[in-house]
Specification:
The protein is α+β, with helices and mostly antiparallel strands. It is built from four helices and nine strands; from the N terminus they run E-H-H-E-E-E-E-E-H-H-E-E-E. A hairpin with a 2-residue loop joins strand 4 and strand 5. The two termini are 29 Å apart. It binds a DNA duplex through strand 4, strand 5 and helix 4.
DNA sequence: AAAACGATCTACT
DNA sequence: GTAGATCGTTTTG
């Protein structure tokens, strides 16, 4: 998959804007097993005033990456799954965008192998699923996704046309505020709920 | 040292 | 749609 690697300035923008702009961009992973890629179709912004933001109650060992430079991956485990976020905003402003779903592009066979399922709709339609499909591990926490060489993970602008972006309030226990948001591409068959 | 709590997934109705 | 599994991280005693 070819395209322009999203520069650090991209991630230095407001988190909500980054979440919106990431829709339609392409996530690429390169490992010894091969290359996998997919179009981002669902993201979730985690802003400063959001109680669900891991950094809301301060810095811990787990969320340390969020306090660092934008354009780095923040990977962590929940239940038995991993979640991939990209850090946004200037150093010291701990915000990030969760990649919730991608539409598989290249390396579908490798994804099937890693996931153990055949249905393309089940390959990467969920935060934990896409991490498994792309071979993302806990060790990828902190990797720079803006460096052309030496990064197993990059995000690129492949010039794909993007559908209309829909903003929906998140479902969850902390529903009091109008944040965070979830962005969906209308009509995409892979979005959850 | 123990308990509680999830930015989830799968299987099933 | 809902129920149950599941395990690392954080908080509390």
């Amino acid at each position: 998959m070819k395209g322009r690697i999203l520069p650090r300035e991209f991630y230095l923008q407001r988190t909500l804007l980054v979440a919106e702009q990431l829709i339609g961009k392409v996530l690429v992973s390169r490992t010894s097993e091969g290359e996998t890629s997919g179009v981002i179709v669902e993201t979730e912004a985690y802003t400063l005033n959001d109680p669900a933001n891991h950094s809301y109650r301060g810095k811990t060992q787990r969320n340390a990456t969020m306090f660092g430079d934008a354009g780095h991956a923040y990977v962590y485990a929940v239940h038995a799954s991993l979640c991939l976020n990209i850090v946004t905003e200037p150093v010291g402003v701990p915000c990030a965008v969760l990649i919730r779903a991608v539409e598989p592009l290249d390396g579908l066979e490798l994804m099937r192998l890693r996931r153990g399922v055949g249905d393309p709709r089940a390959l990467a339609s969920g935060p934990g699923r896409l991490c498994q499909a792309f071979g993302i591990t806990r060790e990828w926490d902190g990797v720079d996704v803006t460096s052309p060489e030496g990064s197993p993970l990059t995000l690129i602008d492949a010039g794909l046309a993007r559908g209309p972006v829909v903003r929906t309030p998140r479902i969850g226990i902390r529903v009091a505020v109008d944040l965070p948001y979830r962005f969906l591409v209308e009509g995409c068959p892979f979005v959850s709920r």
